[in-house]
Input
Amino acid sequence: MLKYIQRLLRTLRMEVVAVLLILAAVVALGELGVIPNGIVMPHSSGEFKLNTIAIVATVVCVPGAIRLFTLNTTKGLRRMDNEEALQSYHVWSAVRMGILCLTAVCDVAVYYMATSISGALCALITLLAMLYCWPSEEKIASYLECVNKE
Output
């Protein structure tokens, strides 16, 4: 079982690093001008709309992704063995990281298009949530302990 936990832990960490590399690539694209910088006029309704989209996406998706993961990894534990539980944990971790990745990419794109700090702050909040989701052996062990209790 320890072998499966170590493999899952390594896979989850590679997925988090891949998401961070995607986010770094989007920032690099913005810095190189591939993402058009400042195409939205400052203090315009377009800037307001983009900032609102970034803020709402961050406020909804960050806690939503964390809550979705919690709900789906605690529901139905009684009917799972350890292998199924680890697979479910992996699937919902990937879903959570996907939601956070899309939110962060959207926030960074808004930052470069509107050149306002709101998008950067929202991306920073999403990045902090990603670091909160960093997988550890203790988290997986406590999850499996809950599975074995049920």
Notes: Residues 85 and 99 are 21 Å apart (CA to CA). Residues 82-114 form the longest helix (33 residues). The chain has a mean pLDDT of 89.
